[in-house]
Amino acid sequence: MSEKLLIVVDNFVFQTRNLSAELNRVVLQQARLAREQLQSLTSTQLEGIHGARKCFKRLRACYRLLKSSDRATFLQGNQFFRDLSAKLSVLRDTQVMRQTLLSLRAGNHGLVDTTVFDQLERQLALQQRESIAQAMAQAQLVSDQLGQFLRRYNQAEKLTLDSDVLLRALVKSYAVARRSWKPARHSGDDDDCHHWRKCTKYYWYQLRLISLLCPPPKTQLNSLDRLCNLLGDYHDLAVLKVQLAEVPSTEQPLQGVIAQRQRQLFREADNLAESLFKRRAGHYAVWLANRWRKTVP
């Protein structure tokens, strides 16, 4: 990642107490960054797709701040960037599966015959070659739509945000992440874990937005980042399991390895959640409001 890109990503924070101005600045910055990422693509350099999809997640986290105050704007923005991200998902899913498979192979230690990995790697490599042309076409389409969004945004009435709306949104995100942990914990279902991951990711992004104005405890932000990564790895394995059904001869040997790795990841995630979500939503609201009053005059 270039030094310029690192600086832009680090600017995903509110830098002044003018919350409306900061929200509009961040939305424009992330939309422009996503477009730049897509315009930098080549048939051999496709990292920009992943970068653009991360921008879309950040943008959805921004629009979720408005859910209680401007539901129509929230719904419009959230759906727009969700749909753009979905258009870029095919190639990204293949890339994730290949990376996940390489990780499993590195930690295999003779549990699964190497020919199983070879067969699945060939299948995924073929899929990736077939999806590159499609991904390039979709990336161009998404880039054009982002250009239209930016032109409309500059002409439209700007988003508004105050501290009351911001704090309500953060408490809601915390409560939703905490609540989604419970069914995932009891069911162990891949879909429940994926839902927990998405809710936790939005909460983490929103905490990052206020990390200069009202810094959360460093251990909290780091643990939340670690939790998101663990649940992301868990989901990547779930995506790979779906692929195994298309290569029957590889399914049985790898299923056990994947299940074991998922159990390990979930144990770590569950342990982190015990400390991160120990407060009930009402207690968290009081704690956050007090912290905000002390740090944001």
Task: Write up this protein.
- With 297 residues, the chain is mainly alpha-helical.
- It has one domain (3-295): CHAD domain.
- Helix content is 81%, strand content 0%.
- The chain has 11 helices and no strands.
- The protein starts with a helix and ends with a helix.
CATH class: Mainly Alpha
CATH superfamily: CHAD domain
Straight-line distance between termini = 36 Å
Gyration radius, in Å: 20 Å
| Average pLDDT figure | 88
The parts where pLDDT drops under 50 for at least 5 residues are 1-9
Coarse morphology:
flat
CATH topology: CHAD domain
CATH architecture: Alpha solenoid
Helix content: over 70%
Order of helices and strands: HHHHHHHHHHH
Strand content: under 5%
Number of helices: 11
User: What class do helices, strands and sheet pairing give?
Assistant: mainly alpha
Number of strands: 0
Largest sheet: none
Total domain units: 1
